[in-house]
Amino acid sequence: MRLIFKLAVVITTALVLYLGITFFQVWRAAGRDGARPVQAIVVLGAAQYNGQPSAVLRARLDHALGLWRRKLAPVIVVTGGGQPGDRFTEATASANYLLARGVPDGKVLREVSGRTSFQSLSSVAAFLENRSINRVLLVSDPFHAYRIAAIADELGLDGHTSPTRTSPIGGMTEARYFARETVAVAVGRVIGFRREAEIHKVVVLPPPTPTRSPATSG
Q: What does DSSP say about strands 48-49 and 52-53: parallel, antiparallel, or unpaired?
């Protein structure tokens, strides 16, 4: 019994240490801005309401628009599918928002099927490869930066993160997202982000209503 107890203490200590280091990496990535010249800016989707981007999505789009106006990339890729019953996808709402602010239609690429961060980035990686595009800036909320960079790396993208600084997510809500991202990164690095996304798709039940969290997809 003493040996089992010692083994349990060692395992628990190792797990806590691993999660602590992972949290620090997620937190540190949130404070970094890797903006630089690339081939495309990729905006991770968030909720939209009848074609109107949520405040979270607007913050991401405004940041991407600023990067594009700085001529850091020639095109902006918007991502995100829709929930059952939605008339618009997240990508369509994002594209319309950018078009209304002067971005030419030919400079906006749309990924309209992804329901999670991995699905969206996987689709983006595939169609960007066909355009010989590999170097990208990833735009999302700060807490999301480390995981999407890790996913991009797994997919073979040369991804750099440039988080928005105007997100309405803060306080305890932001703390919960940091905790969620820490666990997601910790698991994804062990089993692979593709496998993690497949497990998530199988075990997570759909919400009882079309209402979504105002933050990012999983």
A: antiparallel
Q: Which CATH superfamily is domain 34-203 in?
A: HUPs (3.40.50.620)
Task: Calculate ∠ Cα 80-74-28, nearest 5°.
Answer: 60
φ and ψ at residue 158, rounded to 5 degrees: -90, 85
Q: How far apart are the first and last CA of the chain?
A: 41
DSSP-derived secondary structure for 79-147: E----TT-SS-HHHHHHHHHHTTT--GGGEEEE---SSHHHHHHHHHHHHHTTT--EEEEES-GGGHHH
- Rounded distance, CA 139 to CA 67, Å? 10
Say what the pTM is: 0.88
Q: Are 98 and 65 in contact (CB under 8 A)?
A: yes
Residue with tokens 């700085």: 70
Give the pLDDT of residue 205: 34
- Residue 33 has what DSSP assignment? -
**Residue type for position 118:** F
155-194, pLDDT tens digit by residue? Answer: 999 999 999 999 999 999 999 999 999 999 999 999 999 9
DSSP for 175-193 reads HHHHHHHHHHHHHHHHH-H
Contact 134, 39 (CB under 8 A): yes
Element of type H or E holding 9: helix 2-30
Instruction: Report how far residue 11's alpha carbon sits from residue 17's, in angstroms, rounded to the nearest whole number.
Output: 10
